[in-house]
Amino acid sequence: MASHRRLKQPGRARVTVLTATAAAAVALTSQAANAAPSEKPSKDEVKSKVDKLYEEAEKATEKFNGAKEKQQKLEKQVDRLQDKVARGQDDLNDLRGGLGSLASAQYRSGGIDPSLQLFLSADPDSYLDKASALDQLSTKQAEALKKIQAKQRTLAQQRKEASDKLADLATTREELGKKKREVQGKLGEAQRLLNTLSAKERAALKAKEDRASRAAERKASDAADAPKTKAPQGGVKGSSRTMAAYAAAQSKIGSPYVYGASGPSSFDCSGLTSWAYAQADVSIPRTSQAQANAGTRIASQSDLKVGDLVIFYGDLHHVGFYAGNGQVLHAPRTGAVVRYESINNMPFQFGVRI
Predict the structure, then answer these.
(1) Residues with Cβ < 8 Å from 335, sequence gap 6 or more?
(2) Reduced to 3 states, what is the DSSP secondary structure of residue 298?
(3) DSSP class per residue in 191-225
(4) Contact 294/287 with Cβ under 8 angstroms?
(5) 14-64, pLDDT tens digit by residue?
(6) What sign does the CA torsion over 157, 158, 164, 167 have?
(7) Measured by CB atoms within 10 angstroms of the end CB, which terminus of the chain is less buried, N or C?
(8) Which long-range contacts does 338-342 make (Cβ < 8 Å, 24+ apart)?
(9) Predicted pLDDT of residue 323
(10) Spatial separation of the C-alpha atoms in residues 247 and 268, rounded to whole Å
(11) Residue 337: its pLDDT value, please?
(12) From the CB of residue 264, how many other CB atoms can be counted at a distance below 10 Å?
C-alpha cells in the first residue's frame, strides 16, 4: 500500500505575509473600483486659467515691444556710426594723400644745399620766391599732420562707439528672441487648454464676450451723446488731437489682437494707442509702461475725459482709450478684437492725458 506523505504546513510568518498581501490587493481593487474618474475642468475654470495665461503673455509682449523698439533704435544708431566711420576713413585717406604730395614736393625742391641752389640759380629772385613757398609748404605739412592726428582720434572713438552699440544690439536681439519664445509658450498653453472645451462651450464663451462688448459699446455711445453737463462719469471729450486719436482707434473696432503688432490691420494694446495717436500727428512711446509717463496722470476715474489713455495692472502692462461712462476701447488679448469693455474688468491704475 502506497504511503501518503503529509504536506508540510506553511509557517506562521509565511501565513501572515500572504494574508497581508491579499488584504492589500483587495483594498487596492476596492479603491480602484470606487474611485471617481478625474473630472474634466469646467468651462469657467478653463476660462480663468486661460485669462491668466493671456495676462502673462501680455506682460511678456510689452517687454518684447520694448526690446523691439530698442533694437530698431540701435540699428539706426549703428548705421549712422558705421557711415560716419566710413566717411571718416575716406577723409583720413585724403589727408594722408595730401601729406604725401607735400612731402614729395619738398623732397624735389630740397635735395641741394640752399646756398648752392641760390649760387646756381639763373634767376635769384625766382629762387627766393621758391624758398618762401617751401617754408609755407612746411607749415602746411605740420597742419596736415595735426589734422590727420585729430581725425585718427575721432575715428578711433567712433569705431569704439559703433562696436559698443553692436554689442548692445546683439544682447537686445537675444532678449527679443527670449521674450518672443515666452509669449509663444504662454499662448500655446492657453490654446491647449481651450482645445479641451467642446465647440459648444467655446461658442458660449465667445457669445458671452460679444454680449458684454455690445453692452459696453452702448454705454460708451450714451456718454458721447449726452450733454456735457449731464455726461455720466467722464463723458466730457478731450482735446481735438486726443479725439482725433480716439476716432482713429474707433475705426479699427473688430481688428484682431496680434502680439507685437502696431497696425494698420492688427494690434496689441500699446500698438493700437501709439498707432491711433500717430494718425493725429502725435508721437507717443510704443510700450504701455512708457505711455504711462507720456502725459499728465489722472488719478480718479471720475476725472477722465473721452480719449484719455487708461493704464491697468500694477506693472502697467495694459493700456487703452477711455470711452466714457466707465468704458474703455482697447485691444484686449490674443483671440479677441479691438472692442469696448468695462473699465472695471481690469485693475485700473490711473489715466494719462496726452
Answers:
(1) 54, 194, 257
(2) strand
(3) HHHHTTS-HHHHHHHHHHHHHHHHHHHHHHHHHHH
(4) no
(5) 444 444 444 444 444 444 444 444 577 788 888 899 989 999 999 999 999
(6) negative
(7) N
(8) 338/249, 338/252, 338/253, 338/254, 338/255, 338/257, 338/267, 338/272, 339/213, 339/216, 339/217, 339/253, 339/254, 340/213, 340/216, 340/217, 340/219, 340/220, 340/253, 341/212, 341/213, 341/216, 342/212, 342/216
(9) 95
(10) 17
(11) 95
(12) 12
Cell digits for 209? 464676450
pTM summary value: 0.67
Residue 65, classified by CB atoms within 10 Å of its CB into exposed (0-12), middle (13-18) or buried (19+), is: buried
pLDDT of residue 97: 72
DSSP 39: P
Under 8 Å between Cβ of 84 and 161: no
Q: What integer pLDDT is reported at residue 307 of this predicted model?
A: 95
Of 128, 98, 100, the C-alpha closest to 115 is 128
Sheet of strand 318-324, all strands in order from the earlier edge strand to the far edge: 296-298, 348-353, 309-312, 318-324, 327-330, 339-342
Residues of the chain with pLDDT under 70: 1-38, 98-142, 144-145, 225-235
C-beta of residue 181 within 8 angstroms of C-beta of residue 287:
no
Q: Which of 186, 338, 213 is nearest to 271 (CA)?
A: 338
Backbone φ and ψ of 316, nearest 5°: 60, 40
d(C-alpha 77, C-alpha 162), whole Å: 8
Coil, helix or strand at residue 188:
helix
**pLDDT score at 230:** 44
pLDDT at residue 232, rounded to an integer: 44
Please tell me the predicted confidence (pLDDT) of residue 136.
54
pLDDT of residue 135: 56
Cα–Cα distance for residue pair 47/50, rounded to 1 Å? 5
Which are the catalytic amino acids? Answer: 269, 318, 330
How is residue 221 written as a grid cell?
455711445
